[in-house]
Amino acid sequence: MSDPMAEIRASFFIECEELLEALQDGLAAMDGGDTDAETINICFRAVHSMKGGAGAFGLEALVRFAHRYETVMDEIRAGRLAPDRDAMMLFFRAADVLSDIVRASRDGEHIDEAEVESVLGQLEALAGGAPEEDEEEVADFQPMGLAIDLDSTPEAPTDEPWTIRFVPHAELFSSGNEPQHLLRALAALGEAQIVCRQDDLPPLDGLDPEAPYLAWEISLDTDKGEAEIREVFDFVDGICTLEVSGGPRGPELPPLPDLSDLPGTIDDASAPAGPAAAPPGPDGTARRITLSEPAGDTAGDEPAPADPLQTPGGKAPEPAGSPAAPPTGSAAPGDRADGSGAGGGAGGGEARQAQAAAQTKPTVRVDLERVDRLVNLVGELVINQAMLSQSVQEAGIPSNSPVSQGLEEFMQLTRDIQDSVMMIRAQPVKSLFQRMSRIVREASAAVDKRVRLKTEGEATEVDKTVIERLADPLTHMIRNAVDHGLESGEKRRAAGKPEEGVVTLTAAHRSGRVVIEVADDGGGINRPRVRQIAEEKGLVPEGLSMTDSEIDNLLFMPGFSTASQISDLSGRGVGMDVVRSSIQELGGRITIASEPGVGTTFSISLPLTLAVLDGMVVRAGGETLVVPLGAIVETLSLADEEIRSIGPGRNVLHIRDAFVPLLDLAVELDYRGPLESYDGSVVLLIQQEDGARAALVVDSIEEQRQVVIKGLQDSYGHVPGIAAATILGDGQIALILDPVDLMSNVAGRSRGAVPSLDLAG
Amino acid sequence: MSLHILAVDDSRTIRDMLKMALTQAGFETSLAEDGMHGLEVLDGMAPDAIITDINMPRMDGFGFIEAVRAQDRHRATPILVLTTESAPELKARARAAGATGWIVKPFDPEKLVRALRTVAGPGGA
Questions:
Q1: What residues contact A465, with CB distance under 8 A and at least 6 apart?
Q2: B4-119: what CATH class?
Q3: What is the pLDDT of residues B95-112, one digit of tens each?
Q4: Given an 8 Å threshold on Cβ–Cβ distance, is A45 in contact with B17?
């Protein structure tokens, strides 16, 4: 029992995450002006489902919070409360707290009570006078509205049997209840004698097959109290006449002394299973006919509904159709007598958008370790396949032979397997973005700015590890954007911008990489100020001529912080330098674009996967290297007249009316000195995400292939210009270039002692 | 012969728990994720009783019960409503829609089974 429960519990928390996501989506839609009733319904249901599940696991804190939250949402749902801006902010905050409680409940951690209470209080205030229904919550399946007369019903066992009179109304049948089962359940409480009264049964020709005519009288010998007896009839309360009397110290009269004399008496609980309990329905007629045996001392056709059989309480029973009025002082609540109170159900056939479909896709939980093992194995398979291809080629087997063709298919399959395996690890960035919306809310509250987060490309899938390791750098960037990027409300107004700042978070696939951008519509980087600070801190020599982009990049220098006062937000000792290094550890890059008065955009570019890469195998200075295919725009062969020298150590390539820096790969990597002439050399045109290009001279291009990335970081740390290594088909180890890193490094070195083409002779 | 129960709830957790409780009681269980889905599943079966949640996407519990009752062969099929609220008007509404009884969430498996037996009999009915 404990094992399946643990499983369900684990799956409950997974469901909670999904529900929280749905809640976030719904709230964001509402915040964006979506007034569709279904949107608030989705939010309500999400909270409601969490509450339902939480109750099952006794997660009191979660139940309590969800209940209060749901109550307020219900107010909005019912149109009694308008979701204004303040309410929305509170809802977002409540969603944050809710997710905290979910996680704390899951991990058995401590919850920030103060925050919970504060939000609870605000929710209650928002709900206004709406009565709190906490106390109405009944722990489980219970009878309702009982007022037990303590004088007459002590709980002590008794030998006095209870007398119960039970007259079903038509509604009892139409609601799907069945006297037979009720009587059986009643009989299970003790020793029961059940008599079916057919006094009201009309002659056959006047019989309505669907109308109730029967009544039952039960003498029940049990040690149970009246409450238990009434509990059996809980579902039919108000749609039958139920009188319970007798029992311990019951009313004066002895209970039904004449019962045993009646011909219809059955003294076994199984009795109602017989014809007396014929269910209603189309076939009811036939079965009821068998009942027309002489009905004791009363004539079956007596028109009056008055029951000739006096109840022991001495009270005349009401005619069928009125609510029960039990004689022993217990009261059936009148307000739910016939169940017609609330009318007929909310939008029964309403066809709603199948938004839930996405949430309910069946999933399998798998240990990440297993997936990683699979990823590794597929990596080996790729290498193996490459080696096989090479052997086949070396064996001189023609390419139209069955072996080569089979190998071609094998390669395709390997590639498909690889893609599929990588997709297992890939996750949409949505969850990450949702966490960021919380960061924006908290950050904007801390610095008292109105900020809205816009997200685009939430469905973009990225390797799970990358997502996890992006959270910290992204958090910092978002805080920076809110704190430093956006101006204060007054400044924005003065600049003619809307007071509410916008931070945009975008994810997209671009040429085999994932690009994530954090953009603000703030004042842009204050370059003179950045420069001044850098000079004051001695990070750069004074008066150095720097381009805008070089100044922007000063932000990434260790120990740089622009805020003149350290706010409690970003002044945590983590600078953009740390952000950059964590991005680099993921094989990514970060760049800045800023325009004064318009805003600043940070772009993070990441490899799609951390395991495989499409690359071009090239040779430079006698070494074999792999250049990521995504970075290569085109390959060409150099002619002397296309090379222009621009000062010492710098050559450019003139290509289609543009000049591109020309780099010799072998020289950059110190394999050899520069060549005398580059006429006829093979060149790879490399392009960065931001459009900057460079021409890379290599000795030759070998082939294009998929390579498995084997990290170098663990062994060698970060090597400038080198991303990783791989094993080629012939078993040779080759380095994988990071062309963009190479380009940025070369720019730095070219001012120093890079051997120039002119000097080398 | 054991009872065959159709349980409709949009929460996977509750569905899992219902399935566990019902299976342990020896009932045969079919599951559905919302009212619409419930009607689809119902099409191919004749359950002895139906358990349904109220708050569900696409078609809620009230709509589902009404649609079930509108089918001639399910006019008398017992339907239990699963609800977190026990407010009288909610029960009244459930009954007005044609529900047979109700169970308050979180449910005690034993009481769930007892309630099912109260509306659907001991099995083989």
A1: A425, A610
A2: alpha beta
A3: 777 888 888 777 778 888
A4: no
